[in-house]
Structure formats: structure tokens, C-alpha cells
Request: fold
Amino acid sequence: MATADPSRPGFQLPLLLLAGFRTLIDDLHAELARQGHPELRPLHGFVLQAVGVDGTTATELGQRLGISKQAAGKTVDRLVAIGYLERVDDPRDARRRLVRMTPAGIDGLGRSAEIFDQLRTRWAETLGPHRVDALEDDLRTMAAANWFRLDVPGWFGG
Reply:
């Protein structure tokens, strides 16, 4: 069955949602680069959030991100190399190694939250605060109850 309004075909909705997401993420990373974090990439934000304040193991990280332990390890290797994560002995279990954020990782994640607030404000200035509020409310209505998920990298990767 075709869309009731041929000027608004159904396939455009997910593409526009993705374009809005991409615009926000691209703007975030441009500002992060200006603020001293040019190495951070969109995937890295998911990884830093999944590592969290207490750290995690590579296996747990892969599960949280919906990717293999090997893929998680490769991403951790990259973030260790550029100074955002470190590997340390687990104080509760000497057989395990934890991955945890360095001060640079904590700073990058904190700046991301601040920049997202600024970007939301910019959208509200352009569209109007009530329209942005309504957009968020509508997306919460349509999104799954567990809409805040860190497994997007695995989901996109198939």
C-alpha cells in the first residue's frame, strides 16, 4: 500500500531521522576537535559510555556494544593508543584486566554532554523550543521503551 501523501514517501522518515542524527554527531565532533579532541570518532562515544565510570572487561564491553570480544579489543587498542582508555589489573580479581577511561576519556565524554546541550539549544533557537520538545516527546512515544542502547555499533554492523 502506498503512502497517502506521495510527496512524503515512507522511506524518507528513517532517512531524515538518520540525517538529523548525523548532523548532530558531525557538529559534535567538529566542536570536540576544536576543544582538543580531534581523534574522537562517533563509535568512540558509544565505547566510552559503555566503559563507564567503573571500567569493564573487553568481553563485557563487547556484550554492551553488541560486537565481538575481538572487535571490542581492537577498538580498545585504538583508544588506548590515543590516550582515552587504559588497561589495568582488576583489584577484585587478579586474573582479569579492566578497561577504564583516562582523564582524557573522561574529559571527552564530559565535553560531549556539554556540546550536546549546546546543539539542542541551537536546534531550539532555529525550530522553536516547543517544536524540539514536541519532537523529543513524539520520538519517545514511538521508540522502544529501552531507547537508550549502547549496542548500536553491533546493530549497524549486522
Notes: The first strand starts at residue 85 and ends at 90. Helices lie at 12-34, 42-51, 58-65, 69-81, 103-127, 129-142, 152-157. The chain has a mean pLDDT of 91. Strands lie at 85-90, 93-101.
